[in-house]
TrEMBL record:
<dbReference type="InterPro" id="IPR020904">
    <property type="entry name" value="Sc_DH/Rdtase_CS"/>
</dbReference>
<feature type="domain" description="Ketoreductase">
    <location>
        <begin position="12"/>
        <end position="197"/>
    </location>
</feature>
<dbReference type="InterPro" id="IPR036291">
    <property type="entry name" value="NAD(P)-bd_dom_sf"/>
</dbReference>
<comment type="similarity">
    <text>Belongs to the short-chain dehydrogenases/reductases (SDR) family.</text>
</comment>
<protein>
    <submittedName>
        <fullName>SDR family oxidoreductase</fullName>
    </submittedName>
</protein>
<dbReference type="Pfam" id="PF00106">
    <property type="entry name" value="adh_short"/>
</dbReference>
<dbReference type="InterPro" id="IPR057326">
    <property type="entry name" value="KR_dom"/>
</dbReference>
<dbReference type="InterPro" id="IPR002347">
    <property type="entry name" value="SDR_fam"/>
</dbReference>
Amino acid sequence: MALKDLFNLTGKTALITGGSRGLGLQIAEALGEYGATVVLTARKQHELDEAKAHLQGLGITAHVYANDLGAFDTIDPLVERIHAEVGPIDILVNNAGATWGSPTVDHPLEAWMKVMNVNVNGLFLITQSVLKRCMLPAGKGRIVNVASVAGLQGNDPRMAPTVAYNTSKGAVVNFTRALAAEMAAHGVTVNSICPGYFPTKMTKGTLAYGEQNILEATPMHRLGSQEDLKGLALLLSSDASAYMTGQNIAVDGGAGVV
């Protein structure tokens, strides 16, 4: 097989949660450029419509479905609808996420549950549904979880405390390992991308608070760009990574090595 064919996603359908903006939309651009039909979910219909128009302008086939991963009873019907209207899901990118900044002793339980429900529970339920309905019957699939370097380490005391977010992303890191081992015999690979700091709507407050500290702690002395996740997302979604599973890969400008 030619090397370029290992990355070819023509005929594949990729579901990307939280795909209407930020990292999710960047990943959609990458997978769509290499031939995938992309399906985006997010909470806000107008943002999904804008993302769809953007992707179609790039020549990418895109479908959008408004959905809240925190509303658990909507998840399986969503996957069923996508399966019926678009086709079986070959690639699942679990990108949707929530965060909350608060000292631990003051952290509201409601906010803790919101972060866990989106970042862990909703991620589990949509993964379960896609596996059951699409990947296990097909005997193949690619699952790419968007975790975070926050799931690989503690929190710099110079930054705003985000104990719920760090905890949830630590759960995603080990969920990736555990599910990868379970699915290895079924033709499904499970890996995660652990981004460092990228300018997005979610990180706006963190960057306003501590961007200089972040840059000083990053050997490359810059934030992630709009292109920096695309290559890895394509690799983990394609046959080029067929012998990779259970890996949690940091994309952080070297911050995790110092």
